[in-house]
Every structure is written in C-alpha cells, then in structure tokens.
# Entry
Amino acid sequence: MDDALGALQAQLNAIEDALDACTTQDQRNQLRPSYIQAQLNYQRAVNKIFWANDPKITELVAQMKQTQTSLQELTQELADFAKIITAVSTAVKIGTELASIAK
Amino acid sequence: MKAEVASAVRHFRFAALLLVLGLLTACKTSQEAADAAAQLTNVSQQLTSYYTDLSNQVAETITLQEMHSQLMFQTPMDSSVRAELNTTRQELAKRVAMAQALGKLATAYSALANSKSATDISTAAGGLASECKSIAPLPGGSAIPDLVSVASQNLVEYIRQRKLRKSSEAISQIVSGIQEMFASEIPAYKSLNRRRVEIAQRVAGELLQRDVVDVGPALAPALRPFNLTAKPQPNQTTTEMRTMARVAIQRTGETGIEEFAAATDSLSVALKAASDQVKLAVGKH
# Structure
C-alpha cells in the first residue's frame, strides 16, 4: 500500500510540474480534469487505508470504555469498603459506650 | 501450657510472614501497574497531539489546495476533492477520539494502581479491631488489632492485585491493537504530511514567481544578530533573492517532512514500549 500511495502521489506531483511548466492558461485548463482525477485517486487511496481500520477502532474504543468502567467501579468499591468499616467501627464504639452507661 | 504458648507463637510468626510476603508481591504488581499507567498516560497524550496535528495539517491542505486552484485555474477547487479531504479529517477525528479514550483508560488504571484504599481499609479495620477489643468478653488478646489490620490490608491488596493483573491483560491487548493499527497507517500519515508540505511549496513558489512575496524575513538570520532589517525592494525582488527564497522553501520543506517522519516512528516505538510495560504488570513479559 505504501508503494501504491507513493505512486499516486508521484503522479500528482508530475501533473503539478506540468501545470507549473504551462505557458498559457488554456494549457493549464486542459490539464485540469486529469489533475482532479489524480487528486481523487490519491485521497481515496488514503481514505481506503483508514476505512480498513474503522471496525478495529470501534472495537478498541468499546473495549477501552468497558475496562475503564470496570476499573472505576473497583476503585470506588474499595474506597466504599473503608467507609463501611469506619461506620461499623463508630457503631461498635457507640454500642460499647451505651453498654457502659447501662451498667 | 508452655508448649501450647510456643506453638501459638510459631503459628503467629508463620501467619505474619505469609502476610508480609503477600503484601510484598502485591506491592510489586501495584508498582509495575503504576509505572505502566504513567507510561500509558504519556503515550496517550502524545497520540492525541499527533492525530490533532495531522487533522490540522489536512485542514491546511484544503486551504492550500484552494489557493493553488485559484492560482492555476482562477476557479475554486473541485468539490469532490474537497469532500474526500473532509472524509480524511473525519477519519482522523475518530483516531483523536480513540487516543482520548486511551487517556481516560490510563487515568482509571492509574487510579486503581495508586489507590490508597488498602491503607485506608487497614486503618479502618485497625480502628474496628480496637473497638472490638474494648468489649470485655471478646477473646483473643492484644494480637487481634494488628492481625485484623494487616490481614485486611493484605486481602484488599490481593483483590486489587488480581484486578490489576486482569485489567493489565485487557489493556495490553488494547495497546497492542492500537500499536498495530498505527504501524499499518504510518505510510498514510507520512504521505498526508508530505502532501501538505509539497502543495505549500507549490503555492509559495508560484507566489514568488508572481513577485508578491516579501523575502525580507528570510534574511533575518543574517541581519538580526546586528540589529539590522532588510530594506524593502523598491520595484521587484531580485533574481538572486528569489533563488535564495526558493532554496529556503525547498530545504525547510524537506526538513519538515524528515522531522514528521522521525516523530511518527518515535511514537510507534513509544506505543510498543507502553504495551511492553503493561505486559510486565500482567507478569508474562
């Protein structure tokens, strides 16, 4: 694909060299259809490379979001766990104090 | 009675040793994951900047093609060519979004790897054990607070370690996938950059040819050190000046293309390195 892209770009450059060499506007205008076609051929070849990877990008982004959510949930669960133990600790402390008052 | 106490002490020491060993292993995994997360964050930022820059280059190519078309044909650029260039920009926007998603993933990975949840839980568990100890009939003696605190920390580290390993496995596959995709598209990235530089050179050359360019700034490197500035040309730029400007256009363009190619290869290597670092955290590097 590298070679194909390079060849299309070289073709584009060759037409642009020819455009630079033209001495009249009429000569340039005659080259315009070929120039447009060469531009389209090159840009479509680039886009074809990108399109080939589109399904992979969609899949990778979905995987990244799923893994990110899973990591965030676990981080939050661990943080919540500490809070729960602290709350239980406070409850036990209050219970102990209540029990000592009741004696 | 003495034998029972000695046995209890031996068991306690063995349990404590296991807990310490477990913590050390978990810490190693967490450290490797933290290192991998830092590397991943860095490479995702580089990737986002790279794709954003490339998208901007394509936008600039559209502007340059428009100028070229006006200079060559006195007419706007062909609409179908513009549409194809816009499609290229849309494709690059997808890659910017992908790089940003990698950045968010790296942040979540880093949050878990650097989380002090195990310490927090250990402290909270220690506090709970102290409270339990103050309840008179509870058996176990003074060893309970320390054991509960260390055991809970070890348990949390174990859970975190398992989760980090599992996540590292998934992240390793993701980064490898991105690296492979990036490598397969390198010819297109370099070509898009080259195309922008070349069309800019064409337009600059044509403007120079039409003598509508002030070449004064090109002389700045020679004059600036002596606080001098170029004198504006009264009628037209001399042939020597134009030749000099053409050489500058050619050389600057070539340098730009080489630098972009080197930056592209370097990013590909950085992606591979990040992938390897994540594999270390998986433990199968």
